[in-house]
Amino acid sequence: MSAIDHYINTIMEQGAAEAGEDGSAAIEAHHLLLAIAAHEGTAPHRLLTGAGLGRREIRDALDREFEHSLAAVGVSPSSFPLPAPAPDPGRRPKPGASAGLALERALTACGGKKRDLRPAHLLLGVLTAGIGTVPRALALAGADRAALIARTQESLAGGDW
Amino acid sequence: MPAEELPVPPDPADALAAVVALRRLAERLEDAAVEQAMRAGWSWPDVAEALGVTRQAVHKKHAKRLIAAGVTLRRRR
């Protein structure tokens, strides 16, 4: 198995764990972003932390986006004071539509050849979505998504892993 | 609340994001509420009827998680 296959498998497994923690049946693009941010020793990790976006900061931004989106229709998650449900150790989240799009965009970004894929392409695949939870969360966190995309492209041009 | 006072997000992106967030909240709420009911001794048919789904559906979705969490479940009737 190639290094990029190992990386993608690790991100998908960690993404599934993030989805499970969320109680989500699907791995979505924001779960991939959390997984990418948690995986040290790669260009995407350096790019994200360099922009002040560690896993914790991204998790906080996603929580804010959730609350903000609910507030738009007058709902507050704290209106339902039920205890947190027990996690489901048997749940195996499958890739959702947004994760599929992120992977497609990553492949497109590297010219459609899987052998040319590098971790930063995966980050690019997540970041280049202009619609959805990830761009909304990053905007609410005050992150400059366009600048982060530009730095990711520079990193790829520089041959970083 | 009268219909004219219901909050309507003016931006379609906000309205669509609200749909996504409400679905997520509903899933979490269902997990928590079913667990609370089963811990309180409700039966599968009663929980299913309250949710408006079949007992097979509610059992399939929640039984393994609740068993793993150590919840004592009433036998299905």
UniProtKB/TrEMBL annotation, chain A:
<keyword id="KW-0378">Hydrolase</keyword>
<dbReference type="GO" id="GO:0006508">
    <property type="term" value="P:proteolysis"/>
</dbReference>
<keyword id="KW-0645">Protease</keyword>
<dbReference type="GO" id="GO:0008233">
    <property type="term" value="F:peptidase activity"/>
</dbReference>
<protein>
    <submittedName>
        <fullName>Clp protease</fullName>
    </submittedName>
</protein>
<feature type="region of interest" description="Disordered">
    <location>
        <begin position="77"/>
        <end position="97"/>
    </location>
</feature>
<dbReference type="InterPro" id="IPR036628">
    <property type="entry name" value="Clp_N_dom_sf"/>
</dbReference>
From TrEMBL, chain B:
<protein>
    <recommendedName>
        <fullName>Helix-turn-helix domain-containing protein</fullName>
    </recommendedName>
</protein>
